[in-house]
Amino acid sequence: MPACVTTSPLAISISLPSQSQRKSQRWSRRGFIFVDAARRGNAVQPQNILELVGEYFDARVTLFTLVFVIVATVEAGFFFYQLRLKRQITRVKVKAATTVREVANETTALLARLNEHDLERELWLSITEAMKKT
Questions:
Q1: What digits encode the pLDDT tens for the residues 112-133?
Q2: Where are the alpha helices (DSSP H) in the chain?
Q3: Residues 35, 56: contact at Cβ < 8 Å?
Q4: DSSP-derived secondary structure letter, 33
Q5: Angle subtended at Cα 52 by Cα 46 and Cα 57, rounded to the nearest 5 degrees
Q6: Which residue has better confidence, 131 or 19?
Q7: Rounded Cα–Cα distance for residues 74 and 130 (Å)
């Protein structure tokens, strides 16, 4: 940091920058030059903030933000894909349960119709046992 040296006929005094000046110089060295510009009153008003991203932000911050946004987008895509798969599985389960119920109802109706006909006992037992196995 440069020191200010003033000379007068009587004495020589050296004054160091104040703490606020050192802080503003640190901020401007880190890439945040808008603090100094705002203090001086000659802040640049860009048409688009993206025009001055390179001046305001460090390249590492921009890279981190870009990677973070990409990862978040991919994560959201995986979430919605997983949600879609769960909905498809739920639909298939409901359809399978409905089909099982219909088959059970039709089996009961078929056995009732077969019972109306006088079948031999052995034939009736073989039919009902085959129906129970399926």
A1: 887 777 777 777 778 778 877 7
A2: 19-29, 34-40, 53-56, 59-116, 121-133
A3: no
A4: T
A5: 140
A6: 131
A7: 53
CA-based nearest residue to 16, from 26, 28, 6: 6
Per-residue tokens: 8 = 């007068």
Asked whether the beta carbons of 33 and 56 are under 8 A apart, the reply is: yes
Residue for token pair 């006088």: 118
pLDDT of residue 77: 97
Q: Which of 116, 115, 105, 106 is nearest to 127 (CA)?
A: 115
pTM score of the predicted model: 0.45
Contacts for 22-30: CB closer than 8 Å, 24+ residues apart: 25/1, 30/58
State the pLDDT confidence band at 12, using cuts at 50, 70 and 90.
low
Amino acid identity, position 98: T
Rounded CA separation 114/128 (Å) = 10
Tell me the two tokens of residue 83. Answer: 């949600």
- CA 73 to CA 83: how far, in whole Å? 15
Give the C-alpha separation, 43 to 34, whole Å: 7
Q: Look up residue 62 and give its amino acid.
A: T
